[in-house]
Amino acid sequence: MYSWIWRSLPGGTGLKALLSLILVLAVVALLLFVVFPWIEPHLPFNAVTVDG
Amino acid sequence: MDDKAPVDGVQTEDDVLPWDDAVDETAPQDRIPHDLLDPRRRPPARDDVRPERWRTVARGLGELLVTGGVVLLLFVVYELWVTDLLNQHTQTTLTQQLQQEWKSAPQLPPASTAHGAVAVGKAFAILHIPRLGADYQRVVVEGTGQDQLTQGPGHYVGTAFPGEQGNLALAGHRVGKGSPFLELDKLRPGDPIVVETAQSWFVYRVLGDPRTGNFGTDPSGIPGQQIVPPTDLAVISPRPNAAADAAPSGAYLTLTTCHPRYSAHQRLIIHAKLEGAGIRKADQPQGPAALRAG
User: Fold this and answer.
1) pTM: predicted TM-score of the whole model, two decimal places
2) Does residue B90 fall inside a structural domain?
């Protein structure tokens, strides 16, 4: 998977490294600001109220 | 990083996940010449027919597992650290807004029972708990939905407001989102919980005997601390632990959070009772002594 991505990236080692870094940051941002906030309400330790 | 380990015929498990086929389709053409040119990586002859395929599958599977682990770690970082940072920012903003509001409209109805209905999501008080730190303060918002609790401790809609007869009930996150109620279990009998409103300070004291540390000594029978199932609505009744429609028997404050930490199994409940009457801010702008003594 990762070797396939590496081969698919254009350019030399420097450019590939830069693009990889951007890809990683994009994925991390997607997780932190979209995916995690979305799944969070479904997790147990967020239930702090008493309700019937 | 994935080319380091010499692969032999060992990794020929049959428990292949469906999506690994997709990996197979693309990889082998690229991989075969490169791998076979290197004698150290050449698989044993007996497996010549299928090693490339299985090697790719095993490698893909390994990468997926490692990736999953990293994502989980990132989630822990998010939950314990990023949400705290975001909440810190929210709380700072809310505090500034509230102070500004209080300053610009100081002539709102005086003293204690001044609150009408507060719109859900609106900040209306500041909670101080000296036991949790001299600078511990959290802006309280109306409502206990996800959106409100992300901002700070939430006030159960329909329960009493600060200083009122009945039960001022607040819920707060134990872990993450600023973790306002993380250390609620450190509260001891007699500890002050100070609620600041536009006009007044209200000092509530955790029920129980301060000398022995026994939470259960209040003549009313209401314990200072209890652990209940999540369905136990009676803890936020006007008279704590009585029926929901019971008449108030005093001005109580109840805090709820999850228990144990990281779990939704139970709820940790703290009950406190108003000490004396509200203290006008005009009289004590720096706050009551309890704020500094705790």
Assistant:
1) 0.73
2) no
